[in-house]
């Protein structure tokens, strides 16, 4: 008589367990993409930034530029001290490919000038955010912190709504007795009806609009300029002009300050802004070399 194969209950249980471990869709199996998505696919990785290294900050500003920003250097008679002034002082950093800065501070007979230059290469550790996007976020935070004034309203935005005064046949405005018909008091005396010259809109003590803190349109991918005059001290007033610009994943900061020797002098805003912006353009060009 033929014997029937006999399989114990333990063997059946073991076979079932092994089948569950080797099956393609058992409970507890997971997709390779830990961030979610379709099984078998991976999330796209954002592109790295354009820049992988940084210029040496203390060597990024040439001697001619330093002579202009720090006039006291040319007044030095000791060559050793002069070379030390040109060299600047590097700021503490642990990775010069990520951040590098330099300080220069020189006194002259007229003022003490200070220049600070900082290069920062931004790296994103989020695979979905590129280095450039991360740098843009960081730059935006710094621009917001500068508290730049809102852009002035355009002429069309500030014009009165329709329904205002309408021109009269004589060239004046109907319903506005102060608009100056020919021969009226306070006119030019010519009787021709020509409009008088516009009056000044800002007092001499106000900063002209083109010198106020503002966004710069012709520097890097985005840039802004800040200008602060310290008037709270009893000593000479100190002006600090700051230019910050971003090029791809690198943010460059320039701080240029001047404090006159005489307490009655005030640093010239236009001159300092012009010097700082010229340096910024040179540094932007240096990054692209």
UniProtKB/TrEMBL annotation:
Keywords: Signal. Residues 27-49, 134-213, 256-289 are annotated as: Disordered. This is DUF3558 domain-containing protein. Residues 183-192 have a biased composition (Gly residues). Residues 1-19 form the signal peptide. It comes from Streptomyces triticiradicis. The lineage of its organism: Bacteria, Bacillati, Actinomycetota, Actinomycetes, Kitasatosporales. It comes from the Bacteria. Residues 256-266 have a biased composition (Polar residues). Residues 278-289 have a biased composition (Basic residues).
